[in-house]
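INFO batch 0412 | record 1 of 1 | parsing
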Amino acid sequence: MLSTYQYPKFDYVRPPEQSGVPAKRYPVVVVGAGPVGLAAAIELAQSGVAVVVLDDDDTVSVGSRGVCYAKRTLEVLDRLGLGEPCMDKGVSWNVGRTFFREQEVYNFNLLPQTDHKRPGMINLQQYYLEEFEVTRAKELPNLDLRFKNKVVSVTPQGNGATLQVETPDGIYSLETDWLVVADGARSGIRRMMNLDIDGKIFKDRFLIADVVMKADFPHERWFWFDPPFHPGQSVLLHRQADNVYRIDFQLGWDADPEEEKKPEKVIPRIKAMLGDEREFELEWVSVYTFQCRRMNAFTHGHVLFVGDAAHQVSPFGARGANSGIQDTDNLCWKLKLVIEGKAPPALLDTYSEERVFAAEENLLNSTRSTDFITPKSKTSLTFRNAVLSLAREHAFARALVNSGRLSVPSFLTESGLNTPDDGSFAGDMVPGAAMDDAPMQVQGQAAWLLDQVGKQFMLLVYVLDGASSDADLLASFKAVASGPMAPEVVLVAAKASTAPNGLRVLEDRAGRFAERFDATPGTTYLIRPDQHVAARWRSFDAEQVRLAIARATCNLQ
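INFO prediction complete | emitting tokens
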């Protein structure tokens, strides 16, 4: 039990299959009610897809576990109706500081630009996120959340899968068209299907100590190399909700995990760090090793893997839960289109391609961070310490310091869903990029760009005055605003007044859209449902738009 959190107990409800109700086949079944599985289920359900979630437990995760949620993940959670509760409870931060022995040698700011709705990162214990997700899931009538339902066997089929599910009332059979697997790093379903996951296990151990204390430390990430209170090793400090501080102590591979978790071993480490005068209470302790590995493909017929079931990284850089939630953001709009018959199953292959690329990027960054933090040879240690010694005074050395390159969205520039540019653009909003945010004005009210887009294909057309768009351009908009894959056309205007012909108009009140998207009058962006740029043009062309949507949905003939 924790002193700062009361674990909920979710009710087990006898499944209809064990209550005499005729069995039916479900469009989607999600296995795993952790942060990633619930994110997938919520997104599918609120977009109109009926989904069943199976989980073998009846509460949220034990201990704080995942802590750091990046700006991009917060933007996804906003679309799931979860951003505000996470922000209200979490600890926002942008600045990280790195120390070598007793001196600060490096710091960074995750959000150097102004005018973004969300911070670079928040810290929030995983159990809070899961509880918020369960609350949201229960609000959706087409989401069936089943606790104490353990999948004991999976039989993939050409058009779906059959599951055997164990409950307190026995075993029942469940059929689904699509199975989303989010059952974690030790995925039972991956094992049942005899699927490999390849990579590297790092021979090091870290102690997590969650400590309750009152301290006026700033809301920042602090990382120490070889500090005097833990010589020869590394330490990481994060503040979480409820005055809980996460402290990670590097232990080395030879440490005995069970011994190191004992209070008589943990408390002296914390006192050495905080001083004898600082009062604290030990909340939760764990010892972990970590690995960097992934499946070769995340799609296997009608079985789709997400999160830790598909890939695992070391905790340095907060890339675990963040990448998992971004998996679901990539997958769910594609799965919805396939279920509705608006796109071929080949679209789901691009889920694997794009997210394998992102996982590989995460693995590379995570491995580099781990190698820098835990050097395995005298030569590597000498190099690492030399870099840290020089970093305080020299910019070239600061660029080499790696205490965990923190989670950022992948630029999917090589995706086959993108339409290549046929003009010249400045800035980062290339096809394949996740959109930048920008402040907007909507009908006289302050708003944010990312709150106005997503969930469907959209065209953002930049104009000087939303009320004076010419008739030919408006007619062209109508030409693409029909059919099964019609995008919504939205004007982004330097000056907005009454919307022409019912179009939505977003006023670029601070000029940030024009700046960040290199927009001039007529510039048009095609945005995917997951807020990634699919294409952009210097002028609107209805035929080019149709081709780009066909490409982005694998509907090109």
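INFO post-check: Residues 375 and 527 are 43 Å apart (CA to CA).
INFO record closed
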